[in-house]
Design goal:
six-stranded antiparallel sheet, about 35% helix, alpha+beta, about 425 residues, 19 strands
Length: about 425
Amino acid sequence: MIAAMLLHRRSWSSLGIGGLMLWAVGFLWAGASPAWAQELRQLEGRYVRIVTDIRSTPAIDELPRAFDAAVPLWCQFWELPAAEVEDWRVTAYLMSDRELFRERGLIPDSLPDFPHGYQWGDSAWVQQQPSDYYTRHLLLHEGAHALASHAFSGAGPPWFMEGTAELLSTHRWDGERMELPIVPESKEAFPYWGRFKLLDQRRQTGGTLSLVSVLRYSDTSHRQVEPYAWTWAAAILFEMYPEYRTALLAAAREGRDATPNFTRQFVAALGDQWKVAQARWRVLIDGLDYGYEWDRHRLEIAADDPLWDGRPVERVVAADRGWQSVGVRIPAGTRIAIAADGECVIGREPKPWITEPEGVTVRYHRGWPRGRLLATLLPTAPVSDPKLEPLEVVGIGRQGELTATNESWLLLRVADEVGELADNSGGFGVTLRGGE
């Protein structure tokens, strides 16, 4: 009997509200089996038991297997020993008709009116979504919350709690193999997920949020979908740079603290890197899109990069990387003359596309010929405003000039889509000189 199996595994004191409700469901299934019990079914996995009213399909029936495949990856991400989850299991209510669950007493009255999903202890409630991917994504999202609650007694304030859960639920799954965290490669492969649409709308209207604004999200912010996009992007930032890893792990272990002190301690742990993180955030948000490979878009800058003295600087700008610093800070008021030469390959289909610094006009990237040498000045001073001005990009080509209004890092790149750098090769030789 299901009821007997549940009681053998847990004591009454450890069942929790979700376990007690499921125990009652199991008892009725095994005994009286009323009509409403027939409307629900159980899907069993090692780390999850799913109670659902959704009819059997391959995508729904494999959800326990997908969940089980994610758990070791979550443990690896948080550097948790396998013993931490040996006896851990989540009860998830996956709902098509929410009222059916409410009428059966499977949604406690104490829960808030959540639009998509909610987690409480080792229980989770997930509303079925318009796509199989997004339904699975939400199940993993709530599962990531449940693991944080189990391992760290909480998941911190909203930006950390929701950002890391989004990071650990954005995934690829082929029915056997789970891969996370990832950045989706196309809208078609991740239907109804929609995070990039929200970010792009903000970029188009000049409403890009500063990193400080994201880290100040309130407890009620995530009643809307947009904050999930911003906090996910923040989690990407702190995961993509190895130098932030120690602070990220230390913060997770303070998850029981959801007060502003959590964020203050996290920023303090970053030290001088906090200033650099805010600058990197501007670059990340400017370019984050489908296919973004963070290994190719890491921006190597440092607060103590030398201040440029005007003497010539020579660098190579690689075509298979995103924005690249020339390695110096440009003093305010400095005019810079940039000259470039050489050639590189930007794509290989249907043939290798060879370009010089002016680029080729077969395709365009944000209005620039693909392969053109681009430049931008990234201010070194952190932005205090809640919103960010977009990066001002200049098409340099073979030669060009720009002037630093504020002390800035000079960044260069070869124009191409952020998700299409892997098949590029070569680069341009660049020389910087003081402008006239």
